[in-house]
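Predict the 3D structure for this chain.
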Amino acid sequence: MRYLIIQIAILIIPVILLRHTWIRSCYFLQMFQQVGYKTNEFRSWIAAGFNDKVFTIEHFLMNVVLFLLIFFAAGKITYFTGAVTLAVFLSFWFWQPGRYVAGRDKKPLVVTSRVKRLLVVFFGLMGPLYGLIALMVWFQHLTGMQIGGGLLGSGVGSGTGFGSGTGSGVGSGMGSGMGGTSIEPGVWLQDPYLLTFMLLLVDMVAPLLLLFAGWLVKPVEKQIQEGFKRQAREKLASLPHLKVIAITGSYGKTSTKFMIDTLLRERYQVCTTPGSFNTPMGICKVINNDLKATHQVLILEMGARYAGNITELCSIAQPDISVVTNVGKAHLETFGTRDVIAYEKGTLARELKPGGVLVANGEDERVAAMGRERDDIERVLVGSEGSIRASGEVSVGHTGTEFEMIWMKREAGADDEVVGDVAGGSDDATVGVVGGGDDVTGAGGEDTGAESASDVVAGDVAGDVAGEVAERGVVQMPLFGEHNIMNFMLAAGVARSLGIRFQTVVRAATRLKPVEHRLELKQMNGITVIDDAFNSNPEGARSAIDLLAAFPTGRKFVITPGMIELGEDEEMENRRFGEYIAEKGIDVAILVGPERVRPIQAGIGGGGATSPGGTEVVVVRSLFEANDEMVRRAQAGDVVLYENDLPDTYSE
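Done. Predicted structure below.
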């Protein structure tokens, strides 16, 4: 029975540490997945949180306990006491790994094929370490060697103690300590100190081994990705009728993409990347799995965090029409300056097929300059001096957005093209030469809703307009935020270049739907929720606060962790955001992340719970705590804005 108790005490040690290592490894794998398996970003994240996540206070304290036991207590306590002491400390510090299991992950680990490949390599690195520990256990069992002489044979008495000598081995030390009895067959007694140290060491290095595994699988992943890219290129080459539309910009890409989708579906068969699919593998997945031969238009969103990203995307799908929304401060952390961002976004103009169309935000001087060096494309500028403009008063409120849109006449020759279906010949399109503005009718005489359906309108207008109004009318969108006006006009520019009539565009505007997590209006137990949780930026954040303030009744709440990836401007922009919250008289600001939200808190003003302007400030550690706080405070009729939601890698 005595041996059984000792064995159970020792068995607790590997059970606790192996469990902890597995949970910890899954957590780091989840974070690796959230940074897109980019080893440089994962390395930076590990370095930033090294003392909090990698070598934790629990690791430090456990090593201190081991040191004290080995060098000061091993010769004075029994084998059983040492094992139980370690088991107690491990249970207290390592059984509940709270820092790795939040219980409510915003984005749980998804076990994909890539994760499985990574785990194979990771286990391949961990295996030899655990194999070494197993050999050590076997060797100790055979020889009885131990750390701190006296661990297995230190005595507290004779006959019933654990030995009177230093215990040179299991046979002599244990034998004398047990009153001269021999070790029972099948009994495994191990040095708990060495076992604990070895397993603890593996637990500490597991995140670094995962990072190393990520580096090792890079060549394999690259080959796999090249295969997907090659498959996508071959599929696009087999669809010569297909027109590819690519959208990029610091902000507004996804919203503009879905607006284009809505407008073009008035006439064409459209395939659009879902959500925020804007990476090489996201685009390849849609092309390889979702694109059909019957589709006439393919709409792709192209994102970039590093120089060369858009070139890589265009190498997969070269655009016939490029759309650039703006050049903002997003990803300043990785690009450095807005000029570098502008050059990267301008790749869409440089990679545009000859005869293609560039639809650009003319209100952004960096975007307006794109494509000027090319005389083989048409540039359509959108804005006050462009061919598509907003005029008159703009109404933006909690019921939607309303403005007057104007289409200017373009220079002669730009619209005088041979009419045909944009995607290679519609069954009901009449082919012929039309002047600008003439309607196209189908084979049965019905109105197709197109003013020109040339393959892709080409010309050298370079954004110039004739100075005369071609069409004008009021656009009503069930969308919120003034920034959506520019997004819609960019979409209208694409629709016009593909022959969609003005009135068709205006009618389609009423059918627009908000993109998920982008000023999306919801109802929850009588509380109005404005969900703007996706990737906040300075302009969008102010628009969201404007919308919140526009609601005529109820108290106004904003829940936000602030904005990220703004480089050196991050603190300044978050402070300005706080100032704007106070300026608009928001009643309660629930700020997520005590360290990260300090600039917002400073901007709102006042060091207490309520700012001088009357905004009550509540600081919490997580979104889940913020939700709980909101539930306690908000009542039916109140309005709550969720402005940005950071991934788990930013948890404090």
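The first strand starts at residue 243 and ends at 248.
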